[in-house]
């Protein structure tokens, strides 16, 4: 045995059910350079050593069996256009970057085939040339073989007849059909029927793009034509026509013969949005969404594979549509946190899209009215090409936005959740018959402690995140483990009105509104009122049909829909999301406020937005007030740079889950010392500490955070932790690179 021998894990049947059935082969030294993960190779298979093709899923220098008995790979197949190959390369990259087994990574990217009953339609067809069939017909007629004669004569007329029609209307028995098949006169052919939920309506011509929209589309198309493939960020305010611009780009890419994936958040995957694509591109479009059955999903993937569609629209998982000739991936609302998977591998669709585009030689277009700090930073530093659209496409002007300082309301004795200004504005709209949206910001809120008089929240001295109340009497930081006693008096203003803030719910807001404006019809949209399928749509359509004056809701109401009669948007407790204990709190708050404000005055009537806050001086609130993204970005980036948070630095969250508290704590300690051992320079290990949510379903959770300026170093740490974790099976370890939420 050669010391430098290497071995490949090869899969012969790459389907969801068989992912764990790999076989190890030796890579002969002359093939060493040409075999990599994803390669398609010929191998001798089974007892008879018949030659079959397989895909390489992994390479290692350790033989699993007796090397003398391990067979050699015969050759490498040059064909690299197969979609399976591309998906394997992608899965391997995901496994390495996000930390997961190859199996899990592969089952994330491969279409599920399990238990799918595909609808099949059968046709009876003539197998013989017409002249010969006519001779047979004459023979049957002569022999008074009426059934056979009837079938052949109708096939001579139509050539293909539906099987059901043959056995039904033509009244021909299956045994007759079988007999004619055996004689080689006819054949039964299967036709796959695809289940598609939306049937294309009539096509409409594209709109004429406005000059600034056209400039963006033309520039992209020029790049594309000259072979430039890169990532673009399109920053366009709500209503500036980003969707129209995407469609223009898509049109060019599919005309040049390549396919396109469009990602949009599940919540905006509404009938309205999807129909815009169907009207423009007809039945070359398909959609994926969570209401499809596994069978329906699989069908849509098959259509993509068979080149029956060019465009797939869907949430995060639509990325794995098996197109073999991808030209463009569009990610709308690219800042949305739903693009990050919360299951292993915890991938971010943006990063995976960029990798996938590289594999295919495709471009990526990211779009948002409030881009993520990461993407804007990448555009600033020249890694992404930047476009912007600053005007709304329709006449509508941007709404007037103002803040109300809720501390003043409290000082003047108003203890309701509505400022006097908001209350007056609501009553004005009711009189005029215009509509109001009230947005209750409750995103990412756990129990934090703040002062009702001055708005100060109690923060960690080391991390600039709010401390969380842990049981009674203790405040804890989840990033560094810092702890302190509960405080009774505000450190800033001395007020005793300090304590945990859970915040008021949408139901209470609805009740307060009803008692203030008994004549108003109020709808409520939150997790409670949208439990059943269709609830979400029916609330929105009732509001769109002006069956209600006021819609109260959580962040669910912020997205997507145009309500021309909404002229007032009230944002209650704008700063709630600022206190979420993670470093993205400011970003999330700014995004929510801008998106919510974008709901007002979408049509001809001027809109007004009232932001209620205890922190009118906070930069996220201030920047939202002036709808100034750059102002927000400068402040936010300064803060991230100071503390090396993404994108200034990178962070790896390691979650340790265990049956008992003690096991988890010990495993976390052991893991932390493995990680810190033989220091990798430029890496800071924080923790271990307990997670914010200490226990979920009786599983205890501990955390280690690792920070570094370089992603590669974090991946090295991850590999080290993975190797150590293999030694113990009682605890489960998972990784999250640049986490989007708290733990
Ligand atoms: P965004 O995706 O940026 O929110 P949309 O593409 O949804 O913006 O455009 C907002 C509205 O303006 C839509 O109703 C759209 O049809 C319309 N619109 C956009 N661009 C044009 C245009 N060039 N001509 C006519 N209508 C347009
Ligand atoms: Zn105070
Ligand atoms: Zn801290």
| Overall helicity | 25-40%
Our count of helices gives 21
Total of domains: 6
Q: Compute the gyration radius: what is it? A: 31 Å
> Which fold name is given in CATH as the topology of the largest domain?
Rossmann fold
Strands of the biggest beta sheet: in what spatial order?
11-12-10-13-14-9-15
Low-pLDDT sequence parts: none
Q: Structural class of the secondary structure composition?
A: alpha/beta
How many angstroms does the end-to-end distance come to? Answer: 49 Å
The CATH class of the largest domain turns out to be Alpha Beta
Residue fraction in strands: 15-25%
Total number of strands:
30
Shape: globular
The chain-level mean pLDDT equals 86
Distinct small-molecule ligands in the complex: adenosine-5'-diphosphate, zinc ion
What about the largest sheet? 7 strands, parallel
CATH superfamily of the largest domain: P-loop containing nucleotide triphosphate hydrolases
**Reported CATH architecture of the largest domain:** 3-Layer(aba) Sandwich
Describe this entry's structure for a reader:
The protein has 21 helices and 30 strands. With 743 residues, the chain is of the alpha/beta class. It has six domains: 6-109, PriA, 3(prime) DNA-binding domain (GIY-YIG endonuclease), CATH 3.40.1440.60; 121-192, no CATH class; 201-389, P-loop containing nucleotide triphosphate hydrolases (Rossmann fold), CATH 3.40.50; 400-444 and 504-642, 3-Layer(aba) Sandwich (Rossmann fold); 447-502, no CATH class; 650-737, Alpha-Beta Plaits. The strands form seven sheets. A seven-stranded parallel beta sheet has the order 11-12-10-13-14-9-15, with helices on both faces. The chain has a six-stranded parallel beta sheet with strand order 16-26-25-17-24-23, with helices on both faces. Helix 16 (535-544) links the parallel strand 23 and strand 24. Helix 1 (83-99) packs across helix 21 (711-725). The mean pLDDT is 86. One zinc ion binds at residues 451, 453-454, 456, 490, 492-493, 495.
């Amino acid at each position: 045995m050669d010391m430098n021998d290497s071995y490949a894990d090869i899969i012969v049947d790459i389907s969801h059910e068989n992912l764990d059935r790999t076989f190890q082969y030796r890579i002969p030294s002359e093939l060493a350079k040409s075999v990599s993960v994803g390669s398609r190779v010929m191998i001798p298979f089974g007892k008879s050593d018949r030659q079959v093709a397989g895909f390489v899923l992994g390479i290692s220098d350790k033989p699993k069996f007796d090397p003398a008995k391990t067979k050699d790979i015969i050759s490498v197949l040059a064909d690299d256009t197969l979609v399976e190959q591309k998906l394997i390369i992608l899965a391997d990259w995901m496994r390495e970057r996000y930390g997961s087994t190859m199996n899990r990574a592969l089952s994330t990217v491969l279409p599920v085939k399990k238990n799918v009953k595909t609808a099949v339609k059968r046709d009876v067809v003539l197998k013989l040339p017409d002249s010969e069939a006519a001779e047979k017909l004459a023979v049957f007629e002569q022999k008074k073989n009426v059934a056979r004669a009837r079938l052949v004569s109708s096939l001579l007329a139509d050539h293909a007849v539906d099987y059901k029609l043959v056995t039904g209307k033509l009244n021909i028995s299956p045994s007759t059909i079988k007999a004619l098949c055996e004689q080689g006169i006819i054949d039964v052919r299967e036709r796959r029927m695809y289940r598609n939920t939306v049937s294309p309506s009539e096509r409409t011509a594209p709109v004429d793009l406005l000059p600034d929209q056209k400039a963006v589309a033309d520039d992209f198309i020029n790049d594309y034509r000259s072979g430039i493939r890169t990532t673009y960020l399109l920053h366009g305010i709500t209503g500036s026509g980003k969707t129209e611009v995407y469609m223009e780009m898509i049109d060019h890419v599919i005309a040049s013969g390549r396919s396109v994936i469009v990602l949009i958040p599940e919540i905006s995957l509404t009938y309205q949005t999807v129909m815009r694509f169907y009207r423009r591109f007809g039945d070359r479009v398909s959609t994926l969404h969570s209401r499809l059955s596994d069978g329906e999903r699989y069908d849509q993937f098959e259509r993509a594979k068979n080149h029956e569609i060019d465009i797939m629209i869907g949430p995060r998982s639509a990325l794995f549509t098996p197109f073999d000739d991808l030209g463009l991936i569009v990610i709308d609302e690219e800042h949305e946190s739903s693009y990050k998977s919360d299951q292993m591998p915890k991938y971010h669709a943006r990063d995976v899209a960029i990798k996938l585009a590289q594999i295919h030689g495709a471009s990526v277009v990211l779009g948002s009215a409030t881009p993520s700090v990461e993407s804007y930073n990448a555009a600033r530093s020249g890694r992404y090409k930047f476009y912007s659209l600053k005007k709304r496409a329709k006449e509508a002007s941007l709404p007037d936005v103002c803040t109300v300082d809720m501390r003043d309301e409290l000082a003047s004795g108003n203890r309701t959740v509505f400022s006097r200004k908001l209350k007056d504005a609501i009553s004005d709209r009711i009189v005029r018959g215009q509509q109001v949206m009230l947005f209750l910001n409750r995103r990412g809120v756990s129990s934090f402690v703040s002062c009702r008089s001055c708005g100060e929240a109690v923060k960690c001295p080391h991390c600039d995140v709010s401390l969380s109340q842990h049981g009674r009497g203790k405040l804890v930081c989840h990033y560094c483990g810092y702890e302190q006693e509960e405080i009774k008096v505000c450190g800033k203003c001395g007020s005793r009105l300090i304590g945990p803030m859970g915040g008021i719910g949408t139901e209470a807001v609805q009740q307060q509104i009803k008692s203030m404006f008994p004549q108003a019809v109020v709808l409520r949209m939150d997790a409670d009122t949208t439990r059943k399928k269709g609830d979400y749509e029916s609330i929105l359509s009732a509001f769109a049909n002006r069956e209600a004056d006021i819609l109260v809701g959580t962040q669910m109401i912020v997205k997507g829909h145009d309500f021309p009669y909404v002229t007032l948007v009230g944002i209650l407790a704008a700063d709630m999301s600022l206190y979420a204990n993670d470093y993205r709190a400011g970003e999330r708050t700014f995004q929510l406020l801008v998106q919510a404000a974008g709901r007002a005055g979408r049509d001809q009537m001027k809109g007004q937005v009232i932001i209620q806050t205890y922190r009118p001086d906070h930069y996220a609130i201030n920047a939202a007030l002036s709808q100034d993204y750059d102002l927000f970005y400068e402040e936010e980036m300064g803060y991230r740079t100071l503390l090396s948070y993404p994108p200034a630095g990178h962070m790896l969250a390691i979650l340790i889950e265990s049956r008992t508290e003690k096991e988890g704590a010990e495993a976390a300690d052991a893991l932390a010392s493995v990680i810190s051992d033989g220091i990798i320079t430029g890496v800071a290990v924080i923790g271990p500490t307990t997670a914010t949510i200490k226990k979920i379903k009786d599983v205890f959770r501990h955390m280690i955070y690792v920070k570094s300026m370089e992603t590669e170093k974090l991946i090295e740490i991850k590999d080290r932790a993975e190797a150590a974790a293999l030694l113990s099976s009682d605890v489960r370890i998972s990784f999250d690179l640049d986490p989007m939420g708290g733990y």
